[in-house]
Amino acid sequence: MHNLTIDPDRLWRSIMETAAIGGTPKGGISRLALTDRDRQARDWLKSACEDLGCTVTVDEVGNMFAVRPGRLDVPPIAVGSHLDTQPTGGKFDGILGVLAGLELLRTLDEAGYETNAPLMLVNWTNEEGSRFSPAMLGSGVHAGVFDRAYADSRTDRQGVTFGEALDEIGYRGPAKVGSTAFGAMFELHIEQGPILEAEEKAIGVVTGVQGMRWYEIALTGREAHTGSTPMSLRRDALVGAARIIGAVEAIARTHPPGVGTVGLVEVGPNSRNVIPGHVFLTVDFRHPDDAALDVMEEALFATVEEAGRASGLEHALRQVWNSPAVAFDPALVDAVRRAADGLGLSWREIVSGAGHDAAYVARIAPTTMIFVPCAGGLSHNEAEATSYEECRAGAQVLLAAVLDHDRR
Ligand code: GLV
Ligand code: MN
Ligand code: MN
Ligand code: MN
After folding, report:
1. pTM, whole model, 2 decimals?
2. Which of 212, 206, 349, 354 has its CA nearest to residue 290?
3. Is residue 1 domain-resident?
4. Which residues line ion ligand 4, judged by CB < 5 Å?
5. What family is this (predicted)?
6. What is the pLDDT of residue 3?
């Protein structure tokens, strides 16, 4: 048994120091993928890893891999997550997994501890999917879910492509996508939901990730004068959108524990005395059971047809992302459970409601995740909060699980 302990002060300092890159007045972070702020956070991480003598490689879609050699020439055990955030994101989503991984490297370095397998810290590109959809794009390319050309061609709402933004910040690396081998991956993350806090559990032993599907809907009616156009002659795209938004909520509620959200709406021309002629909206459906998502999807298609007919709209609906439910590797899940038990921490099994790079890495290597609570279950919010103690516990479980796996 090892008796290594991570340094919680050093971990907390890293979190607070990097939180200044894109820090918001409300205490969160605004650091969209492939912006100059993302570059600054990447530069910070790269130099921290190089200070430890790690070799940092970057692949063609900007995924970063920092390797600390082990005793054996075998595929590395990976840890990490993502450094990009939502436009009004918090200080912990993704970031905790990366900086706890860095803390592992620092702890091992300080102790002069030699692992059997190399240890690899990963920062995945564009996990959030906020600037460039879909989410988990960098890990998806790595796992062969998307090809590189597809990633490069994704555009933000201003028309800038992923490839242009990547070149602009100087993070298109030479490593071929998918060429970096993974022996296993452990991703530490905040829960982003209320369960652990409500049940007063320190650790979530994550057994899988629910299925996720994203859709884009464009509705076209006719712009006309609001004062002189009788109600019976209108083709109001926003009225159609309102029907769809209400139906998305109803569909999710009738398929528990499914969830459904319209998070982005653009209205044209968005003028108070013009009947809306164009609406663009997005739908996000999630459910642990892929068959239930099929049913929800069918209901959405019927709803859009119906809303189009009722308001006289042309409509286009397409699925832009489908990430099926994932079950994590049982041996790695066990390693996390043993680690929590060994440290005397309370835990429960949990299925992730949020998407994570681990869901795609699971396609190419044994993978699992560790969750820690966050206050009020709040995430994708500047007020997102996980305590010093919770971060310490999560990082210590990560270290123990990695070393347990390394000895097997
Ligand atoms: C990404 O953060 C997602 O879960 O949508
Ligand atoms: Mn995340
Ligand atoms: Mn997120
Ligand atoms: Mn996420």
Report:
1. 0.94
2. 212
3. no
4. 354-355
5. Belongs to the peptidase M20 family.
6. 85
